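Quiz preparation item.
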């Protein structure tokens, strides 16, 4: 019994020492940040924004590795299979919490195989029409949709995207029939709306902000819980009595399961500190973002909550990705 207790104490001491070394020495080499989308998109934006500031704080380079494909499933799997040593991090978008609802099978567990670290910001989902659309308000669009017995067409960036989920929630909330037109990405979906070939879309503000500023897209309502600073005059669907659960994509840091808490705290605290920097905050807001600054526990709670909500919507709407 004494020998067993000695071994247990020794094991606990080694674990404590390892954690202490991780906290004190990490990072001792460059840190890899995997992003599941191509360079230039809203997820990549967050990584590039923090790349140099975090590199200066850590005294080591933060190396961004874009691994696009399959709604970031490829990137997620790579992170899930990586060593929990803090040298592979994941800048995930919120499709991480919806993929489980739309894919029949994933090569990882969305919760058990990852360690939530810090959630950076969200990009509000917005109801848009084109510049030449006859609809000036969400109420006008809704009235026209109710008259359209064939189901008004709405574009999205893809089956199972945040815009698709927003559309399904909106359809159920206001009691209309719609025709969902899925595109391969936000850019072609938005261009069809700008051209007037599809009447409307739910899309992220960060992905559409340039078209809004150029006058090519008209925002009718914010799908998130609050107004966006860069669209201060645009009401929320909640204000209009059409409120839906928030589908606004978020962008946050995850690690593989088993990431030592000292490293989690170090990354979270450093990122939260940078988000308080007025210059960094202004760049996020100007790009159409809303700063969330959620630490590990609130971030994990958000993921679990969205997993449950998305499963219900996907099942009721029959949203599946083959």
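Solution:
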């Amino acid at each position: 019994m004494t020998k067993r207790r000695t071994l247990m104490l020794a094991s606990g001491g080694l674990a404590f020492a390892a954690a202490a070394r991780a906290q004190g020495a990490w990072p001792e080499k460059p840190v890899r940040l995997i992003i599941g989308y191509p360079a230039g998109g809203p997820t990549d934006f967050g990584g590039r924004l923090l790349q140099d500031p975090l590199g200066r704080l850590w005294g080591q380079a933060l190396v961004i590795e874009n691994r696009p494909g399959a709604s970031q499933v490829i990137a997620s799997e790579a992170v899930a299979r990586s060593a929990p040593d803090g040298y592979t991090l994941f800048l995930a978008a919120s499709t991480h919490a919806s993929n489980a609802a739309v894919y029949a099978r994933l090569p990882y567990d969305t919760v058990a195989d990852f360690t939530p670290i810090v959630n950076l910001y969200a990009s509000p989902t917005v109801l848009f029409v084109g510049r030449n659309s006859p609809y000036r308000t969400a109420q006008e669009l809704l009235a026209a949709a109710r008259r359209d017995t064939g189901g008004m067409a709405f574009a999205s960036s893809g089956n199972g995207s945040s815009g698709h989920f927003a559309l399904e929630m909106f359809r159920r909330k206001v009691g209309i029939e719609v025709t969902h037109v899925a595109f391969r990405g936000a850019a072609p979906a938005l261009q069809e709306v700008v051209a007037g070939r599809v009447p409307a879309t739910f899309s992220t503000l960060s992905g559409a902000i340039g078209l809004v500023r150029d006058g090519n897209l008209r925002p009718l309502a914010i799908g998130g819980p609050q107004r966006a600073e860069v669209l201060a005059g645009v009401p929320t669907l909640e204000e209009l009595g059409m409120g839906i659960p928030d589908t606004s994509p978020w962008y946050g840091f995850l690690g593989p399961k088993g990431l030592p808490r000292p490293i989690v705290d170090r990354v979270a605290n450093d990122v939260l500190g940078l988000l308080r920097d007025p210059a960094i905050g202004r760049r996020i807001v100007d790009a159409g973002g809303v700063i969330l600054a959620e630490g590990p526990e609130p971030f994990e709670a958000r993921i679990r909550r969205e997993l449950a909500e998305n499963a219900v919507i996907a099942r009721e709407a029959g949203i599946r990705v083959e």
